[in-house]
Amino acid sequence: MKKSSYLVLGLFSVFLLAGCGSTEGKENSASSSTSPVSSTSSSSTSQTTSSTSVSSTSETTTSTSQSSATTEESTSQPANVASKGVLLNDAQRNQINLAFLNWASQRAAIGNMAVSEWFFDHGAAGRGDWYANTPDGQVQVQNNNLPGKSAFPIRAIGGCIFYTAKDGGIGRQELFADSFAANYSVKLDHTKPVSKYLLGDNGVVYELKTGNGMPVSTNTGFGEYADDGSQGSYTPDLNFQVSEDQAAQEKLKELIQSY
């Protein structure tokens, strides 16, 4: 009887050990099968990150290249700009300029000065548009369609020049004398103050003060675009400023409002 009990107990122990060995094998197998999955996932993530980085860099490089090309294009060819001025035809411009000149002649006479409409001229030159620099942007003074009206925020209605005449004349005077080459030297005294007024179609009077010993001519303060319509190298030698003459500012606005 005791031998049978020992036999049964021995067989139970064998079965129990066999079961433990089987469980340990399964755990090792499961642990072994999990590792490759983790490795594959890590490799996939690395490839995705690399692909995204290369794609992003490529797109950034392309965008930068396109931006540089756009900048280069805008530098070589002036872009269209929004107009700051009113729409006037040539006849209206002439009428406003003449009315302003008549008003200016009275002001000049009061100050014992002369005034003339010959504020700008260039003689023989290139084919580009002529312009002046102001704090509000370039003002087109003469349109030759290179680059054309749409490239300027402001266009000149006209202008005039206040000066002291060598012959003592006051009020409105004829400044042109004999030839363009003689220019201002015949009638204008450049040792005294000289002011060029530029009337913008934005309703602002711009002024360039010279004289007082500084030589001045009809193209002083003006530049010209190149024959291909690009900015070119012939730029204004002096810049116009917003005139402090409030009476002139009010007069120009009044004249423009009538149109």
**Structural class of the helices, strands and pairings?**
alpha+beta
Span between termini: 134 Å
Biggest sheet details: 9 strands, mixed
Provide the β-strand percentage band: 15-25%
* Approximate helicity band: 40-55%
The sequence of SSEs as H and E is HHEEEEEEEEEH
Alpha plus pi helix count: 3
Low-confidence stretches: 1-77
Question: Based on CA inertia axes, which overall geometry fits?
Answer: globular
Number of E-type strands: 9
Descriptive notes:
This protein is 42% helix and 17% strand. It has 259 residues and is α+β, with helices and mostly antiparallel strands. Strands 1, 2, 3, 4, 5, 6, 7, 8 and 9 form a nine-stranded mixed sheet that branches. Helix 2 runs antiparallel to helix 3 (246-257). The model is unreliable at 1-77 (pLDDT under 50).
Condensed summary:
This protein is of the alpha+beta class and 259 residues long.
Helices and strands, with pairings:
Layout (H helix, E strand, L loop, with lengths): L1 H75 L13 H21 L3 E3 L13 E5 L2 E6 L11 E10 L7 E2 L20 E8 L4 E7 L11 E2 L16 E2 L3 H12 L2
Parallel strand pairs: 1-5, 3-4
Antiparallel strand pairs: 1-4, 2-3, 2-8, 4-6, 6-7, 7-9
Helix pairs in contact: 2-3
Which properties best describe this structure?
single chain; 259 residues; alpha+beta; globular; disordered N terminus
